[in-house]
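fwd from M.: "can u put these together and see what the complex looks like"

so here's what she sent:
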Amino acid sequence: MGTEKILFYIFATVVVFGASMVITVRNPVRAALFLVLTFFASSAIWLLLEAEFLAIVLVLVYVGAVMVLFLFVVMMLDINLARLKAGFISYLPVGLGVAITMLVIMVMIVGPQNFGLEEYLAPVRHVASYDNTRELGGLLYTVYVYPFEIAAVILLVAIVAAIVLTLRRRPNTLHQKPEEQIAVKSVERVRKVKMRAEERK
Amino acid sequence: MIEWIQSTFGLLPEMVQTVVIILLKIFAIVVPLMLVVAYYTFGERKIIGAMQVRLGPNRVGPRGWLQPIADAMKLIFKEIVIPSGSNKYLFLIAPVLSIGPALAAWAVIPFDAEMVLADINAGLLYVLAITSLGVYGVIIAGWASNSKYALLGAMRSAAQIVAYEIAMGFALVGVLMAGGSLNLGVIVNAQSGSLLHWFWLPLFPLFVVYFISAVAETNRAPFDVAEGESEIVAGFHVEYSGMAFAVFFLAEYANMILVSALAAVMFLGGWLSPFEGLLPDSVLEIPVLGALLGGGIHWFLIKTAAFMFSFLWFRATFPRYRYDQIMRLGWKVFIPITIVWLLVVGIAILSGLPPWFDAA
């Protein structure tokens, strides 16, 4: 139990540190990198909860793909930091109000009175051969098969919609057709001509 | 001496013993790996030299065999220049982020039926997640260098890796469906039977897609637009010198060996012998010959070496892809192929197609 607790506190410290750096660091690229650190440390905490599938998928999807695209966009942007800081004082009261309301709501919902040991028993430790992935797959494809499939279809619709919305067909632009380039034969491009040698002028 | 080590070792607390044993195992993986990386660079120069009818390095030591040592010495003693206007911490942390995942992924590779550092259930998923982290080294290096060529290289690399990771992930989904597990050891055992039972045959399109995506993921020719020395100098590591550059170099070659080993494990039966099912059991009982012809780590190493050789072969053969063609190949060709083949594999598993899927 000792090591586990120590590991939890190490990773929890990293999560809290990373998350606070995300909102305090000026440079957006560094903020995004601290967000990566936060994701990584929270996946370690999920590993301590024996949720290895979710932990690894968090790293795979959010750290490995989503944040890479995020960084891609943030690095390309030309952000004027002075303009971003300009309205800080005037927005402060509204921002503080929203922050305090959200904090109160979160404490009311996820506070110890709802999530204490009386409400939820401490999870039972599984044996080493316990396969979290198999358990999750079994549940997703039997009990929750309809919600799961519906979510998949909604995502597919979103993908198609995003592509259709950004697709611009401009008829006059030049572009290559790789399939025609691959299918081309030498007779279509090169013409052999038989002619006499011309006299030099 | 040995008794003394054993007696003092037994006195240590159990937790310390476990940690020491794991550290020794890590040592036993990383040291040979680094040696292979060093001589892989030498082999690359020799093999490509032979393909281009040149000699390759032949001055340092007998037939040039000490060349990698000389290269390492040179790089170690070179100054690490930190460009002005760069982000110093990120600039120095980028090579570490590059080599960390390249080494960490080796933890779950099964070298033999018993020889694996961490025999975890979600091994395949772990490999995919860890290798997807390698791109941060490239992106951070490109951004922190404060150089336009480096940034261009990083941007190219980010787009390319995200595109090919999807195709690679789908190819691995096919492997996990056929193997029925995410554990790499179980996946190898699912391929036992004979050479035709190995997954390269039922998953042939996924095998091809996986290996080409692996070449793209490791930023090797013909997909090396992130470096692209004829277009953007050296891409993301243009500002790096000395050991910082050498670490990027080590990471690239360690990654090449890693994806070769993974291809051997997932599609060519890992440590299984190709003579399995062909030779009678009596042959396997012959003292030395039996051990050589039966399954073992040597088959895994031979298969890995074959893939490593093809990396060099590709580099000597193909011209660099143009950037838009790389994107087209990834999104419009590979992803549809893998999705269609996943359907085929699903149908094959449901109908219990012999000889691959009739066991379960």
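replying to her w this: The interface with chain A takes residues 15, 87, 90, 120-122, 125-126, 128-130, 132-133, 135-136, 139-140, 143, 151, 154-155, 158-159, 161-162, 165, 169, 182, 325, 328 of chain B (CB under 8 Å).
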